[in-house]
Amino acid sequence: MRAQLDPSWRASRIKRIRYELYTPQNPYKAQVLQSGDANVLRASFFNAKLPVRISIHGWTGKSTSCSNAAIKDAYLAAGKFNVIMLDWSAISMDISYGRISRQLHEIATNLLEFTQFLHLVSGVPYESIYLVGHSAGAHIAGLAGKQLRPERYGAIYALDPAGLVQLPLGEDKRLAPNDAIYTESIHTDIALLGNPSTKLTQAAFFVNWGLGQPHCPNATAAEFDFACDHFAALYYFAESLRQPRAFGATQCRRCNGRGLFSNSRILLDEWDCGCTNADKTGECPMTVFMGGEPAVPKNGTFYLSTRSKPQPFGYGETVRIKRAGPAKYLHSSFLSNKFVGNLLMKWHNSA
Fold this sequence. Notes:
Blueprint: H1 2-5, H2 7-15, E1 18-23, E2 26-33, H3 38-43, E3 52-56, H4 66-78, E4 82-87, H5 89-92, H6 97-101, H7 104-122, E5 129-134, H8 136-148, E6 155-159, E7 182-187, E8 203-207, H9 225-242, E9 248-251, E10 253-254, E11 271-272, H10 278-281, E12 283-285, E13 288-289, E14 300-304, E15 318-320, H11 337-350
Parallel strand pairs: 3-4, 3-5, 5-6, 6-7, 7-8, 8-14
Antiparallel strand pairs: 1-2, 1-4, 9-13, 9-14, 10-11, 12-15
């Protein structure tokens, strides 16, 4: 309501978006870049000869969270990059996800203008810019990609893209397959905070069927199952940057009469992710790897499973077929925006 009465208030919030640069020269202490300030850019360690990777957090997130640090550290361990963290925490901490969703387009426009500034001042090509978005950040990436056309970013990685509000939206208002040269999504919590759609990106990976990540604990006061599941996509992606062959996956096929998820009601009668000998061996041949650097274009819907403990999570070239984990909170009426927001706040504070 306040933003509607006073437009300058909303503008001031958008201006509080920060772009924090990390490079091999400053892997731990960020340099803050400002769209339109060429002097600050030239005085920084930004190197137009290196690829640009922009990480975008989600609802209740911030650039300094452990999960974002994992992405940044993985890129810098994998090679020489300009890693930029888009921090929109001045907006994302709003307890109302509905209110947040109405501002994603403005944040995406800010991101668009920032990347245009980088391109014009430094000459860095758009195709060498990848956007890595978690949850709502995935849709920010997609909305920025739409506005950049006819140019396109090199890739968008959508890490458990949000589905709370975006589920019924058309392609013009959410992430879509052609928002970058290549788009890939990693789904880990489709039951609540994530998005079960296979139509958001060119390649969609459903890790452990997108339900009940095996390393996530039972719900406790400090860490809730669904929050752990939702953030698992970031840690899987970070591992794929360090080990590009960590997550072998098998392609799913459209079918009739069988569901993607064992003993669940999600995406019934759409996909079969098994293989001929899966019932006997519990394994299927891998067809592609998830994630990695640089992006390797794939197309389709894919399944893979992970270990219950990290180091590593991935099984490498082996695809082990497992039963879908429980989604105890699926279709729970008590999970209001306010309740979920409070739980996420607690999770972030404990992380």
